[in-house]
């Protein structure tokens, strides 16, 4: 039984690590609404790989009205600062595609 313990421990570590990585790969709530316009080949610039501070700052500027927009100001108002930072961090971690 002792010989199986290290193998079992290694298997569990890999399995738990895979589950954790899968959870990290899921976008935060709201991020999927961005990809319609900000995905590769879409109408607006790609967000993947942009600095998180840049994305969060743009969302704040749209939300406050400091950055004029026809649509993004209304979309950005749907996210609070914490949600905006989570979305920005997720897109930044995606890296350029």
TrEMBL record:
This is Cytochrome c domain-containing protein. Residues 1-22 form the signal peptide. Keywords: Signal. It comes from Methylobacterium gregans. SUPFAM superfamilies: Cytochrome c. One of its GO terms (molecular function) is heme binding. It comes from the Bacteria. InterPro entries: Cyt_c-like_dom_sf.
């Amino acid at each position: 039984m002792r010989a199986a313990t290290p193998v079992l421990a290694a298997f569990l570590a890999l399995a738990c690590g895979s589950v954790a990585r899968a959870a990290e790969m899921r976008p935060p709530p709201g991020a999927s609404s961005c990809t319609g316009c900000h995905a590769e080949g879409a109408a607006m610039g790609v967000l993947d790989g942009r600095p998180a501070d840049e994305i969060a700052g743009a969302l704040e500027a749209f939300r406050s009205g400091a950055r004029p927009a026809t649509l993004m100001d209304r979309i950005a108002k749907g996210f609070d600062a914490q949600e905006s930072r989570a979305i920005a961090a997720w897109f930044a971690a995606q890296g350029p595609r």
